[in-house]
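Ticket #4471: structure output looks truncated?

Reporter: J.K.
Steps to reproduce: submitted the chain below (427 residues) through the standard prediction queue, then opened the result file.
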Amino acid sequence: MNKNIFKLILFGLIFEISYFNILNLKNIRNNVPSFLFTYSILAIGYLILIYQKQFVKKKHTFSYIKIMIFFAIIFRITMLFCAPSLSDDIYRYIWDGKMQLNGINPYQYAPNAPQVSHLVDDQHRGINHKSIPTIYPPISEFIFFISYRISGSILFFKIVFVIFDLLIMYIIYLILKLKNIDLKNLIIYAWNPLLIIEVAGTGHNDVIAIFFMMASIYLLLIKKETLSIFALTLSFLSKFFPIFLFPIFYKYLKNKFIILISIPIVILSYLPYFIDPKLLFKGLLAYSKDWEFNGFIYSIIKKIVLQFTGDPRFMTRAILGIILIGIVGYLFFYSKNFIGSIMITLTSFLLLTPTFLPWYVLWIIPLIALFYKKSLLYLSVIIGFAYIALIQLINTGDWFVPWWFYIIEFVPFYYLLLKKKNLKFLQ
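Returned output as attached by the reporter:
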């Protein structure tokens, strides 16, 4: 047996033991140090494997890919049975599905509204922000509804998300083949420990939107422009992040008017849920106005703005919004790299957002497999340690990362990112 294949199998077994250890922790919030220790093993092993893959000869690539995919599926199956204790978002997904099945608009009533009190069950206790109506766009809500109609269990919802996750993996494989990129790069996505924990373990719906985004990228690469914009619109209607990608896609369309098909799609998707616009986006506005976590640049600018105003949140968000628009504008006019522009746009959004939760980095992991960047690879791993905030939450009730974690998280990242050679790929 080739020694690199042997290493892959060995690491696969170590990873599987590690995931079993996380599974056996049951409620991770009560065992954060143990979780972070196990996660560190996964993170270090993952980075070693990424480095080692370059030494795998072409003649062994097929065997490498088969074994890698096999373990990737096994990891996900194991984590499906892990309690979603790192995040409780999945309880909101299930609740929204339940509301819709009972003919109630999730944009109209918050989980603690008296109008929906008859739907309260054991899972209702796990819902966060019970006073706020849903923040999720219509396509996500539709999938919540269909999933709940089939089964209202946590396990089934996570199975749905893992299916989208595996479909993303397949699209990455197709793009790698299309662009003649080393197929072994697939392991960057397939074995990323944060991704496996956040999708199969915790159950985050981001993979729905990421699937449609990756589909839109692939479809544009093979010149299916109408389908590409359709998929991008569905991505936006699953999670709002991709709104900043529309200018990038517009730039690379031969038929610019195709972008207009997104308008009727958005309108039609909201029609079943249409109520007073103030209510329709009430949850989203609350999120964008008040929520903060792990926003390094946001925290710095907020402290500066605080010197001039008593409530710096709006002004800080406005400044960061202008910066992001400026970045997208620069990419639109000067960048000549389609996938690179998408990567920079999404990365900029994550770095500038007031709320940078660990699972948000899932958006760039598929792109790292296509456009390998050490800085982003580091970020995709280190942000998992942001769950150290759970210790603070348990002890004090406050949800934030300690100041020293910013140094560990962002100083190496920006050092790697700002190297001149790392910026050349935009040309």
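Triage note (M.O.): checked the attachment and the full token line is present. The mean pLDDT is 93.
Status: closed, working as intended.
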